[in-house]
Amino acid sequence: MTRDQRRITLIARRPGPFERSWDAARDAANRIIFLEALTVLRYALDGGVAEMQQDVERVVIDRCATPVQYLELLAALPGEFTGDVLYIGGDDRGFLSATGRGGDRVIYSLSPRDVDFYLEAHGLITGNEECMRLLAVGAA
Fold first, then answer.
1. CA geometry: angle 25, 56, 34, nearest 5 deg
2. 100 and 106 in contact (C-beta within 8 Å)?
3. How confident is the model at residue 34, as a pLDDT?
4. Is 81:32 a contact under the CB 8 Å cutoff?
5. Burial, 47: exposed, middle or buried (Cβ in 10 Å; 0-12, 13-18, 19+)?
6. Which of 134, 101, 130, 102 is nearest to 118 (CA)?
7. Which pLDDT score, from 0 to 100, does residue 135 have?
8. Which residues neighbour 108 within 8 Å (Cβ) at sequence distance 6 or greater?
9. CB 85 within 8 A of CB 45
10. What DSSP line would sit under the chain, residue for residue?
11. Are residues 58 and 81 in contact, defined by beta-carbon separation less than 8 angstroms?
């Protein structure tokens, strides 16, 4: 059995009828691990992942937390975690926390198109999310 060498993307989400088309295939560029609770995500970042010597590249919180919970998570991030932390709200707008030039974190406000671009650029989703969103709005 070979060890998966891909970097990890942790995704906290609430599965539902309009779930994103995450690319979690075995041959995908990213190794995606889904988490159903924000508390599990916190545990993974606080030490569970480091203890297992796993390389977490980014965290995505997809419509399963409030902006305040996102800020609390950012405030509690271990100093050694330098990956991106993307928050996606119920309206598909988001906030991206990334490491800046000096090593400090910066936060960017993202439109729904920016969120889709980020997810597509990093190979996290399949298909066209914007089309899927428009279909979901039309069905409501």
1. 45
2. yes
3. 92
4. no
5. exposed
6. 130
7. 46
8. 95, 96, 98
9. no
10. -PPP-SPEEEEEE---TT---B---TTSSSEEEEES-HHHHHHIIIIIHHHTT--EEEEEEESSS-HHHHHHHHHT--TT--SEEEEE-TTS-EEEEEE-TTS-EEEEEE-HHHHHHHHHHTT-B-S-HHHHHHHHHHH-
11. no
Instruction: Show me where the domains of the chain are located.
Output: 8-139
Provide the β-strand partners of residue 8: 31, 56
List the structure tokens of 54. 């796993």
Q: What is the mean pLDDT of each run of 10 residues along the chain (140 residues)?
A: 76 81 88 88 74 79 94 90 94 96 93 96 78 50
The set of residues, in sequence order, having a beta carbon less than 8 Å from that of 123 and lying 6+ positions away, is: 23, 28, 29, 30
